Amino acid sequence: MRGLGIGICDRDREYAYGVMQYMNRRRDLMVQCCAFTGMEAVRAAIREKHLDLILTGDLSQTEACEEGYFLDRVPCLFLSPLPEPGRGAVFKYQSLPALVHEVMRFLLKDPYPDDRECRFAVVFSPVGRCGKTRFAKAYATAAGGLYVGMEDFSGGSGTELLYLLKNGMTGPERLGELIRKEEGYSALLSSGVQFDIRCLSREDIEHLNEQLREIGSYGRVVYDLGAAAPEMPAILSLFDVIYMPVLEDPVSMAKKEQFCRVLRDMGLTDVLLKLRELRLPDSDEHGEEMKRAAKEALEEEAGFGGQEGKMEEDLSRPAGSFG
After folding, report:
1. Calpha distance 146→221 (Å, rounded)
2. What is the torsion angle, in degrees rounded to the nearest 10, for the CA atoms of residue 214, residue 217, residue 219 and residue 223?
3. Three-class SS of residue 6?
């Protein structure tokens, strides 16, 4: 099960089909994309399946209002042939990673996510033994940021962080005293005991993020978060990006699908939008493969993407230039 439904409508069948293929094969995106060549087909599809966004070069059947364009209450994003398309539109012929980055920013209603002084990520998974902690530490190393350990159970020695949070004693100076220097990254650890994590609230995380932002020493903060907190998964909505490592076996896939279903049933569309699904190498945080996975994640966050082969090169050209 994929999280969000996106429809792309363009008279250029090859373009629409190519974008659909690219979005559906991006495992880090929790989306299911469908391609159409006419808006009547899109309208019929809206009655049969759930669509959260329509990308289209044809606005003739849409309704314009102050919030943007809509087709039967589904928001539309205009595929413009112009490099600087303006509000409510994206440049059609940019690279596919850049196009997807703009689409996700539109869905999140967050036009300048990379201009913040501090960006917060979280690594969470309904699946165990999937490399969650190793990736979080590798990400903190690659980003030159701070690792915040809030696992249900951890093997290391913890701190009194949760006690201080609950008693309003977490000023920037006190937090600075709790932060440790590890091999390649800085770390702020909780007690590492599930029974303490079960007392963690959404308000606690909001407050901790504010204090870490005030410290001003880290451009990236990554949480390694367990599932014991009672306000999960709503806590996940506090983060800019959510990395979800998964495994391929049937039991793990069923857990992932059930988790995504719960998010949709709870109306947590913002969480689904921020999910980035990961298949991680069997490597520790200092291994080259895990370092590469962390680096690629950071590049995709920034909208750089990677080389996606000939299909991406073709789709980045103006219409009529296909060979």
Report:
1. 5
2. -80
3. strand
